[in-house]
Automatic annotation (TrEMBL):
One of its GO terms (molecular function) is antiporter activity. GO terms for cellular component: plasma membrane. It comes from Salibacterium salarium. Residues 158-451 form the Na+/H+ antiporter NhaC-like C-terminal domain. This is Na+/H+ antiporter NhaC. Coiled coil: none annotated. The lineage of its organism: Bacteria, Bacillati, Bacillota, Bacilli, Bacillales.
Amino acid sequence: MEEKRATLTGSLVVLFLIIAILGVSILHYSVAPHIPIVLATIVVSLYGLKLKFQWKHLENSMVKGISYGIPAILILSLIGVLIGVWALNSTVPTITYYGLHVLSPSLFLVSAVLITAVVAVMTGSSLSAMGTIGVSLMGVAYGMGISPEMTAGAIVSGAIFGDKLSPLSDTTNLTAATAKVDVFEHIRHMLWTTVPALIITLLIFGGIGIFSNQGGADTSQVGEMISTLQSEFMITPVTLLSPLLIIGLAVKRVKPVPSLALGLIVAVLTTFYTSPGINLGGIMTAAHSGYTAETGVDAIDNLLSLGGLESMLFGVSLIIVALAFGGVFKGVGIAHTLIDSIKGVLKTKGNVISSTVVSCFGVNFIIGEQYLSIILPGQMLEDSYKNANLHPKNLSRTLEDAGSILHPLIPWGVIGAFVMTTLDVGMGYIFFTFISIVTPFITLFYAYTGLTLTPLNKDTESIVDMDEEENKSETNAL
């Protein structure tokens, strides 16, 4: 049977059904996004079968889509295991203990943004930053009585900012490669949008801390928590060896998975010192099922009963179904049809950039996958930037500003699932992820004023000819 191309009318009907399913299920019934996404996948698959696609093609599209998320799944699983061991060996209690002494409630949210940003820049991974220092910051916030949703928003804002400006970041390198521009020039060009967005984010969080009740947060239980942590756990800098090793390896450009694995080994070895009498079976139990605190103080028990591989299965399963949906959505050609339909309005620089923003957000919202939100619009709109006399680094910056930076606002996306699972918060965190909310507006402001936009005939040395690079690599290999 001959395959048919997805029509615009058919694609719009399918898109409407998907939005209706997700909206009613998640917003009205407040159910977890897994089953609604499965239902959306069925709708897209039925449309694919109507277009005469073989089931094998649809199945392979789902498998290919899931394959994009394997690195994130590995990182998520390792962090779950690592957090369980960190809670057992007093790493999380130690960081919480020091944090309760040092951080001020009125400046805590600002500090959370900056601390997470630094870690993300050094590690090149927003997931690693949120899953390590982010967890500890949530513990400090809990002790100070600061809103978990606000804290999570601050953590995500810092992590996303740091990830975007790190040359170690996979999405940063992917975006530069998609737009065919030098990665360091791409990072420099992003400063025009990310730095103002960070400043605005810090001002908002600073205002919240000073003018709301955050400055006078209920710290009555902080003293009790500090004394309990000191009496029930071994508070020692030795427990910081594992997180410091992970950060050090990231600085050396070691990838997140091996960095986390080595950090886990050190954490396990440290446990034998910080938890006398523990055996390997007890460590493996904490790694799998998480650590359960039994101090008799509810605040501490609620805070430190966390981690374990099992705790990450919600996020892992969400990533799998979301990426399977994204794969089949792309496989039947709906994504390309929808993006192609807007090319007719791409006659001005502002419209080209704003169309990129809309396309990236649309892919994020419908598919929930940040890699595809970069790749699909980048591939489809590359020629439009050339026709508008726009340098490829304008494309790469916009793909980041509306693709990977907007991605945390999608609760059923990879990062959304990671945040809700790892930081143990609901979808309310998205309203406080200010850097993701502000950045696209800065992008659109530049798009229609022309500020910071680089024309195609300038800075041509930063344009990477991918075919030429591939030929060089083949020649060097020979």
